[in-house]
Specification:
Number of helices: 4
Structural class: alpha+beta
Shape: globular
Number of domains: 2
Largest sheet: 6 strands, mixed, barrel
CATH architecture of the largest domain: Beta Barrel
Distance between the termini: 110 Å
Helix content: 25-40%
CATH superfamily of the largest domain: Ribosomal Protein L25, Chain P
């Protein structure tokens, strides 16, 4: 009996967690009011205006719940399972427009995707490992253009510098891509370089002060000689 009660509590906690975290499922509303004034009212109500297009479909103007969408956007190339008036539609976040000062999301572009298709996306590059002692890293590229399954886009691609000596280079062709992901970018794209750290130069003011002190010493020595 106690075991059954414990199991019921566990199942309830799982159900409650699912309610708190909707995953990538978003209930969208069809938007009928347009213009800057209407968009401001939506954002004031905690909602985000969006447009959905692609695959030859007519563009749909939507309203999305702000909090749930912001949670999804923590992941690059997020996919959203939209519920539009009871009809399911899978979409990929194509573009996010933000206020340059307040960083508030102003509008989102969504593109229709279908299971089984592949899309070209820019995936973040994450440098992993430690290069040889006494070296420094210069990352030249921060994203990589690849083709990946629309419903299985990698969150990141690792570029390993483990044990590399100066001067070594890691190119796009050196990266290990996940299964079913292919490189679209130029294979010779430079990702990261392992270099010898530059030695900081002494400030010019220090050199000038030293020259002045030397000149003063010489003058004092001449006076003593006289």
């Amino acid at each position: 009996m106690a075991t059954d009660i414990g199991k019921e509590r566990f199942d309830k906690s799982i159900r409650d967690a699912k309610k708190v975290d909707p995953g990538n499922h978003i209930a969208a509303e069809v938007r009928e009011a347009f213009g800057k004034g209407a968009a401001r009212k939506l954002r004031a109500a905690g909602k985000i205006p969006a447009v959905l297009y692609g695959h030859g479909t007519e563009p749909k103007h939507l309203t999305l719940p702000g909090h749930d969408v912001m949670l999804l956007l923590r992941k690059a190339n997020a996919t959203i399972d939209l519920d539009i008036a009871g009809k399911a539609q899978l979409a990929l976040v194509k573009d996010v427009q933000k206020d340059p000062v307040r960083q508030i999301i102003e509008h989102i572009d969504l593109v229709v995707i279908r299971k089984g298709e592949k899309v070209q996306v820019e995936v973040p590059i994450h440098v992993v490992g430690e290069s040889a002692p006494g070296t420094a890293l210069e990352q030249e590229a921060h994203t990589l253009l690849v083709e990946a399954p629309a419903i299985a886009i990698p969150e990141r691609i690792d570029a390993s510098v483990e044990g590399l000596e100066a001067v070594a280079h890691v190119y796009a062709s050196d990266l290990t891509l996940p299964e079913n992901v292919t490189l679209v970018a130029d294979p010779e794209t430079l990702i990261v370089s392992v270099v010898v750290p530059a030695v900081a130069e002494e400030p010019a003011e220090t050199e000038t002060a030293a020259e002045g002190a030397a000149a003063g010493d010489e003058a004092a020595a001449e006076e003593s000689a006289e």
